[in-house]
Design goal:
Elements lengths: L21 E3 L2 E2 L7 H4 L25
Antiparallel strand pairs: 1-2
């Protein structure tokens, strides 16, 4: 095998990227640092949780 080719695992994009409240760099309007359970898609942010800011929950961006 040619050593200049490295096999990489394709990582899924966190669902946060598709939310209207996502600010980038792991931040959104609800969290200064989005909890790992959301970024790893183990949990969905459909309801308010203790410690978050405002009343923001996941809302998909409109398709253009």
């Amino acid at each position: 095998m040619d050593s200049k080719f490295i096999q990489r695992e394709v990582m899924p994009q966190p669902i946060c990227n598709g939310c209207i409240h996502y600010l980038g760099y792991g931040k959104c309007k609800a969290f200064d640092r989005i909890p790992k359970e959301f970024t790893t898609m183990k949990k969905e942010h459909k309801a308010l949780i203790p410690g978050q800011k405002g009343d923001y929950v996941f809302e998909p961006k409109k398709q253009s």
